[in-house]
Amino acid sequence: MKKIILLLFFVLGISIMAEKFTSGIQKKREVFNEVEKVSWFSADSEKYFNEENGKHNFQIIEENNKEYLIQWKPELDFECTCHAKKIKRYINQPYSKDEISKGEKEGKLKRYRIYPDFRKNVYYVKDYADLKGEKYDYLYFGYDSKLKKIVILDKNSDIVEVLEEGKEI
Known about the structure:
The protein is 20% helix and 41% strand.
């Protein structure tokens, strides 16, 4: 009995203390205007894409009044060895619309249609596969107004990962 009560307190504490998504009261158009023209990626502690555990690298575009998530594996920019540690830096800059259509034909890019979830004020894509090959029936994400970044969410709107903004070269 004591173990059950302790377990209930533990689960309750985790659900209360989890970082929650702060969506703000922005309209869809305002959100996508803020995040369009840049790419978003999984980052390590130094705010660089890490090949070993980087799961997401995408940009959001609009075509024919529909929003799409365009995903690609970042290209290696340079590699060096520093203090016996191999360092790799990747290019995370966004693609132009012409480059996107060319990249899709070559199989470098994947396109996912973005759907809104008005009840939770978040967005999702269906049948998403991240860069590590993990498949999601639904990948939830949103623009966190407090962090000013795109965040990956679980189905309860808890933040799973905060994505960094890709810089143009």
